[in-house]
Each structure stands twice: as structure tokens, then as C-alpha cells.
């Protein structure tokens, strides 16, 4: 049996995307796919962040992953970190900032 994790559609806006209009999150809530719980138990053979430069975006309003955990993981990886007052889906609510971060990482790594 495969255990899958999902956010209830009626809680999706508040938990996952509170900085987006409800008209947008209502579509997202019913079209999302659950995450397999095994994704949290799988192990990698090597962690790329140990040898490859990394960039991180901390969403300070994230209720899906605690911002303190996001900061801790970014610090552990030595990531170049940017914070944004956003929900979990900063790539949707703040696309310009996310694009700038990605371009910055691309430029720095050639």
C-alpha cells in the first residue's frame, strides 16, 4: 500500500497559498496531486549541496514548511538565501522575485 499525503481542498488556500486569490487556489486545490509519503523516507546516495553552490528562497509566510526549517536547511547547505513574504507557492505569487533568484544562480554558476 502506498500512502499519499494531500491538503484538504477546503484548507488549501490558508495552508498552501494564502497570498493568492481564492479563485486561483480553488482551481489549484482540486487539480493538485498527492505526494507519496515514501518521498520523505527515500535517501539519496549523495547530497549535491555539499559540493555544488546552492540558492534558497525562504517563504516567510509558508504554512506548509516552517520558515525556520527553510532557513535552517539553507544555512546547512551554505545557500545564497533570499527571503520573501509569501506562502508556499512563491513561484506563483512572486514570479519576478523567483525569476531573479534563478537568473542570479545561473549567472553565478556560468
Automatic annotation (TrEMBL):
Gene3D superfamilies referenced in this protein's UniProt entry, alphabetically: alpha/beta hydrolase
| Residue span, AB hydrolase-1 domain | 15-98
Origin superkingdom: Bacteria
Statement: the UniProt record of this protein carries the keyword Cytoplasm: no
- What keywords does the record list, in alphabetical order? Hydrolase
Task: State the InterPro entries in the record.
Answer: AB_hydrolase_1, AB_hydrolase_fold, Sec-Metab_Biosynth_Hydrolase
Return the Pfam families for the record: Abhydrolase_6
Question: Signal peptide: which range, if any?
Answer: none
Q: Which PANTHER family match?
A: AB HYDROLASE-1 DOMAIN-CONTAINING PROTEIN-RELATED (PTHR37017), ESTERASE_LIPASE_THIOESTERASE DOMAIN-CONTAINING PROTEIN (PTHR37017:SF11)
Q: What is this protein called?
A: Alpha/beta fold hydrolase
Organism (species) = Streptomyces lutosisoli
